[in-house]
């Protein structure tokens, strides 16, 4: 990593905790009078955690796109930290689980287009990158409710000298969003089309939220699927998917089904998906006759 990205700990001001996981805690803070999010590594004694953390900050330093959370730099002492853009509206997941949040067709199409653009940025990197953990929890909303993809801790290169075949074949991420070909029995590697599968599940999650008026986690409709491993087993072996609500427009349903097709070759690439979604957005603007619940909010809450 270039020294240009090094930030001194004394240049940061720490605020409240925004969230935390097993390996890191994220604070709201400030850097050069700019609001930022500061991700602090917890377990420096764990070599794999530190390796993954360094991989994440290196990847973030290579990415430049409006749909990717902005990377300011990193801190080495007294702890490893990543300093990045602060998104005041939190994750898309935490937004859509609120019953009074504004979830409309306009917003769904906008968010999905931004997701596709961000993923296209990853897939067009030289060498190419795959995210490997796309989900609504890893999509942030900035002040204007634009999508910012985050959490690149599991992202890996699929080509070039930095390609890691052993890592790419390991099942990672959140299984409800994980492509069926990645089931351990198939011994397949993550590819760009694996990320597209995740996009299909995210689209379903948003459409289902709008139509039903409340959020449901993918596969939560199935009482026999209580554990993550059961989800990936059913998705892979029995081609089971979340049920697309009948109120979903056929054109939207077709896109979802293409994205989560069992055959990766039938899924669109990120650039094609972006164009498909733009056409859907244009189609919706002309008619605006897609199903919308009568109690749908008319303004941002």
Automatic annotation (TrEMBL):
Binding site for ATP: 39
UniProt keyword Ion transport present: no
Coiled coil: none
Key words, A-Z: ATP-binding, Kinase, Nucleotide-binding, Serine/threonine-protein kinase, Transferase
Bilayer-spanning residue ranges: none
SUPFAM superfamilies, per database record: Protein kinase-like (PK-like) (SSF56112)
Reactions listed under catalytic activity: L-seryl-[protein] + ATP = O-phospho-L-seryl-[protein] + ADP + H(+); L-threonyl-[protein] + ATP = O-phospho-L-threonyl-[protein] + ADP + H(+)
SMART domains: S_TKc
Protein kinase domain span: 12-291
A GO MF term: ATP binding
InterPro entries linked: Kinase-like_dom_sf (IPR011009), Prot_kinase_dom (IPR000719), Protein_kinase_ATP_BS (IPR017441), Ser-Thr/Tyr_kinase_cat_dom (IPR001245), Ser/Thr_kinase_AS (IPR008271), Ser/Thr_Kinases-Pseudokinases (IPR051681)
Keyword Kinase: yes
Family: Belongs to the protein kinase superfamily.
Protein name in UniProt: Protein kinase domain-containing protein
């Amino acid at each position: 990593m270039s020294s240009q990205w090094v930030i001194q700990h004394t240049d940061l001001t720490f605020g409240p905790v925004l969230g935390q996981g097993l390996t890191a805690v994220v604070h709201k803070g400030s850097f050069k009078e700019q609001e930022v999010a500061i991700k602090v590594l917890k377990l420096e004694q764990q070599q794999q955690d530190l390796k993954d953390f360094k991989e994440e900050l290196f990847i973030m330093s290579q990415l430049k796109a409006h749909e990717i959370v902005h990377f300011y730099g990193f801190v080495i002492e007294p702890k490893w930290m990543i300093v990045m853009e602060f998104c005041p509206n939190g994750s898309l997941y935490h937004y859509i689980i609120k019953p009074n949040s504004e979830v409309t067709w306009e917003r769904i199409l906008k968010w999905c287009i931004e997701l596709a653009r961000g993923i296209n940025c990853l897939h067009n990197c030289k060498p190419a990158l795959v995210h490997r953990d796309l989900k609504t929890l890893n999509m942030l909303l900035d002040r204007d409710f634009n999508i910012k993809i985050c959490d690149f801790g599991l992202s890996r290169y699929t080509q070039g000298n930095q390609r890691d075949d052993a890592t790419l074949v390991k099942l990672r991420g959140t299984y409800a969003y994980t492509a069926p070909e990645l089931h351990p029995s198939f011994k397949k590697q993550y590819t760009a089309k694996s990320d597209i599968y995740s996009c299909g599940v995210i689209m379903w999650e948003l459409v289902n939220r709008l139509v039903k008026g409340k959020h449901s986690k993918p596969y939560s409709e199935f009482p026999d699927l209580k554990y993550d491993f059961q989800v990936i087993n059913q998705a892979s072996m029995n081609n089971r998917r979340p049920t697309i609500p009948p109120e979903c427009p056929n054109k939207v349903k077709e896109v979802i089904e293409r994205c989560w097709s069992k055959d990766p070759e039938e899924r669109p690439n990120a650039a094609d998906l972006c164009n498909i979604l733009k056409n859907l957005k244009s189609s919706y603007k002309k008619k605006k006759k897609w199903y919308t619940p009568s109690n749908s909010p008319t303004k941002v809450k």
